[in-house]
Specification:
Blueprint: H1 5-29, E1 34-38, E2 41-46, E3 49-54, E4 81-84, E5 89-94, H2 96-121
Antiparallel strand pairs: 1-2, 2-3, 3-5, 4-5
């Protein structure tokens, strides 16, 4: 089953925007530590990764947090890790992982959209059941691939297989 064009368009443009945002945050995290702290934890980007520090018993995280003034810069994080500490739990997610997933989804949606556009504009006569190219076959003949009978008006993207003029007449 093919995704609906509106869903494909959302995945295509949303995935591209998320990928771009994650790459910008990833590059920025190599130079700047951005984050947010609350009573029981801290979430920040550092060294190409998203760090989540959580104190389950309600202790303050102020002494557990990374101090960029006194601590040397951390090496880049390339793999997922989880550390159980005495007073807290630390989870580290490298930003290249969600960026790669978003890029994969967006590029797949772009490719599917490109193929759909080529099929729609290329004058192909496709079987509605199996997408077999019916060029050169009689309009009322069975599909040689799956044996499906053509449905009136739905056997091809342009009816006769002739190039479309886009609804304009000369």
């Amino acid at each position: 089953m093919r995704p609906h064009p509106r869903i494909r368009k959302t995945i295509k443009w949303g995935g591209a925007a998320v990928t771009l945002l994650l790459v910008v945050v990833w590059v920025r995290s190599e130079y700047v530590i951005d984050g947010y702290s609350w009573r029981h934890g801290d979430i920040h980007t550092e060294a190409g990764a998203l760090h989540l520090l959580y104190c389950p018993k309600g202790w303050s995280v102020s002494g557990l947090r990374h101090d960029p003034v006194y601590d040397p810069p951390a090496p880049p994080d390339w793999g997922w890790r989880s550390e159980a500490r005495v007073l807290s739990q630390l989870w580290v997610l490298p930003l290249w992982m969600p960026a790669t997933l978003a890029f994969g989804a967006a590029s797949t949606a772009w490719r599917l959209d490109t193929l759909a556009r080529r099929r729609a504009c290329g004058g192909l006569t496709l079987c509605p059941k199996c997408n077999y190219d019916r060029a050169g076959i009689a309009a009322d003949a069975k599909c040689p691939e799956c044996g499906a009978l053509p449905v009136a008006g739905k056997t091809s993207s342009h009816g006769s297989g002739a190039p479309s003029t886009g609804g304009k007449t000369s």
